[in-house]
Each structure stands twice: as structure tokens, then as C-alpha cells.
Design a protein that fits this description.
This protein is mainly alpha-helical. The chain is built from nine helices and two strands. One of its GO terms (molecular function) is DNA-binding transcription factor activity.
Length: 240
């Protein structure tokens, strides 16, 4: 299991669920104890989260949770969909070299293996996230358009915009796991379209693919709102 990927996913999940308040200091040692990890993967995850626009670094070097809105997330995911749609169309129009096809098929096979069990553990989530990042990177690199690649890099600095940032992340809901399996079937269809040289279909599939991230975002925020509504009642019961 990729420990750094696991820690990163758990921290993203905690931020999305509102476990940390905007402006809250994220201390390495406290996070390491909470997640049962060493400080090294936590430190690496914090660097990635800063690059993804989820946390800021203060003048004193402290990591602080950044405030973001659902609209910011939705807009960033929508932009990624159109950028990746352009990349997929370019790959289909240029043709898929044998090496690229092998790389994409390896990602598909790994995703199939990871999603085969009826339930998914944290190792499967972390492994799938790493595979998903490789898959999207292969398509973007193969587009050959440097301006497009720079645009994706800039968009990835926005909250929850990167390809694996809106995976369900250890949810117990079977609905979320079904969405992951559906997203991976889209990977299969996208590779088929690119290999067949069907540019318009590949572009449409890539744009549609990001709707899974939009659904995951909406479900996560709905659960967060439900939890926040329950907390006052829980405090009242506990406090007497």
C-alpha cells in the first residue's frame, strides 16, 4: 500500500467533511497520531494539499486550512472536464501508439483488480487513486499540447480539482463504491474511443467522466450538512 497516498486521501476526506475549521492550524505530529502514521507521509501529504489549494502556508510556515465553497469545487471540476476532453480528442486524432496503449491497458487491468472485491479497504482506495492519476497523466501527456498541459496544472491548484481528489475516500456507502466502478467503466470506454480514433466520442466521454466527481462532491457535502445539523442535538444530549 502506498502510505503517502493513503494519508493524503484521509486528510482530503477530513477537510471535505469539515473536520477542520477554515484557518485551523494542521500540525504534523497531531495529524500523524490521529492517522496512525509517521510524520514523513503526513508532511508530504501537506505539501500536496497546499499545491491543490486546500491549505495555505502562513508567514511562520504553519499549514492552515483554506476556506472554499461548493461553487469553487464544481467550477474547477467542470473546467478539468473540458480540458481533459480536449486532451482525449487530440490523442484519438493523433492515434494511440503501442506503448501508450499498453500503459492505458495496464491501468485498466489494475483498476479492474482493485475494484473486484465486494468491499474496498484503504489499500484498495489508495491503489486506485494512484492508478487513476497515472491514467489521466498518460492521456494528458499523449495529447502533445503543452499549453493544455499547463492549463490543467493551473486548474489542479484549485480545491478538489485534480483527477483523484474527489474519489469517495473510504465512505461506507455502497452507492459511492458503485460510482467508482462506473467511473472505471468510463475509463474502458474512453480507451476504446481513443484507440478507434473517435475524437468526438472520446471528448464527450472525458467530459462526462467528471460528472462522477461532481456527484461525489454533492454527496459528500450533503453528508457534511447532515452531520453539522446533528451535532447541536448530540451536544445537548451529552451535556444534559
Amino acid at each position: 500500500m502506498n502510505l503517502q497516498e493513503s494519508v493524503l486521501m484521509q486528510l482530503r476526506d477530513l477537510i471535505l467533511r469539515g473536520e477542520f475549521a477554515p484557518g485551523q492550524h494542521l500540525a504534523e505530529q497531531q495529524l500523524a497520531e490521529r492517522l496512525g502514521a509517521s510524520r514523513t507521509p503526513v508532511r508530504a501529504a501537506l505539501v500536496t494539499l497546499e499545491q491543490e489549494g486546500l491549505i495555505d502556508v502562513s508567514e511562520t510556515g504553519k499549514y492552515l486550512v483554506r476556506q472554499f465553497t461548493p461553487r469553487e469545487i464544481a467550477d474547477a471540476i467542470a473546467v478539468r472536464g473540458h480540458l481533459e476532453g480536449m486532451a482525449a480528442r487530440l490523442v484519438a486524432e493523433h492515434g494511440v501508439p503501442r506503448q501508450l496503449q499498453h500503459g492505458l491497458e495496464a491501468c485498466l487491468a489494475e483498476g479492474d483488480r482493485l475494484l473486484a472485491p465486494p468491499t474496498l479497504d484503504i489499500a484498495a482506495y489508495a491503489g486506485y487513486a494512484a492508478m487513476n492519476d497515472r491514467f489521466h497523466a498518460l492521456v494528458l501527456d499523449a495529447s502533445g499540447n503543452r499549453a493544455l498541459q499547463r492549463a490543467v496544472a493551473l486548474n489542479n491548484a484549485l480545491p478538489f480539482a485534480p483527477a483523484s481528489a474527489m474519489l469517495p475516500m473510504m465512505s461506507t456507502a455502497e452507492q459511492d463504491r458503485d460510482w467508482m466502478r462506473y467511473a472505471h467503466r468510463q475509463h474502458h470506454m474512453l480507451v476504446d474511443a481513443m484507440c478507434r480514433g473517435e475524437g468526438a466520442r472520446a471528448q464527450a466521454l472525458a467530459i462526462e467522466h467528471t460528472e462522477v466527481a461532481q456527484v461525489n462532491m454533492r454527496l459528500a457535502l450533503e453528508r457534511r450538512a447532515e452531520t453539522e445539523q446533528l451535532m447541536p442535538a448530540i451536544r445537548l444530549v451529552v451535556g444534559g
